Amino acid sequence: MVVSFIRRASGRSLLTFLGTVVAALVVIATAASFALGGGGSPPPAKPLANALHDAAAAPDVQGVSAHVDFTNHLFDSLTMPEGSQPLLKGGSGRLWATDGKLRVELQGDTGDVQIVIANGSGFVYDGGGSNTVYRFTLPQQGDSRSGDRGSPAGHGVPAIAQIQKRIDKASKNATIDGPQPTTFANEPAYSVRITPKDSGGLIGAAELAWDAARGVPLRIAVYARGASTPALELQVTDISFGPVPASTFDVQPPGGAQVVDLTGSQRAAQPDHGTGTRAHPEKLPAWLNDPATLAGRARSDAKPTGPGGAVVVYGRGLDAIVVLEHRADNAKAAPKPVPTDDSGDPGTQLTFPTVSIGGANGTQLSTPLGSVVNFERDGISYTVLGSQPASVIETAARGL
Question: How far apart, in whole angstroms, are the C-alpha atoms of residue 364 and residue 294?
Answer without folding.
Answer: 18
